[in-house]
User: Fold this.
Amino acid sequence: MIIASATADALNGDATTTAFGAGQTIGDYTTPISFDFVTAAQEIFMQNDIDPSVPKVAVVGPTQVRKLMQLTEQTSSDYVSAQALQNYGIVANWLGFTWINSTRLLLPDTDQIDCLFMTRRAIGMNIPKNITAKVAEDPSISFAWRLYCFTVMGAVRVEDKQIVRGKFADTL
Assistant:
């Protein structure tokens, strides 16, 4: 839900929509993630006057993690802590981003992926009805116990300058 709403049209208070800004996008699905793309995302945050001390996350897929692990800047102890690489197999904090691996990112087409670089202020989430669960015997299945669970929630892009979409080739 959060990933889908990150780049979808955002509904404004006056019931109009705001499309994701072209200036907040890097890449064109033809090139895999690279050191240059990561620094380009960081540059967009700087141009948007986002305080460098604001925590940022980069949400990427498994192929992007593997591609980053092939970069000297990501694996050399000259650039990063070797201890983090040994303990986790990936440097969790690199170039000002906390790196999150997700298999739920949007895949527009074969060998294409939308990765996200964002701060906490980028997305707003509302949960007006928390999780509700009911357990009861169901006569339609020989009185076996049935669990019913639901919630009501939504997410929307709140501050466009706080998010950058990376359109990368999902290849090495």
About this structure: The CA atoms of residues 75 and 171 lie 19 Å apart. The radius of gyration is 20 Å.
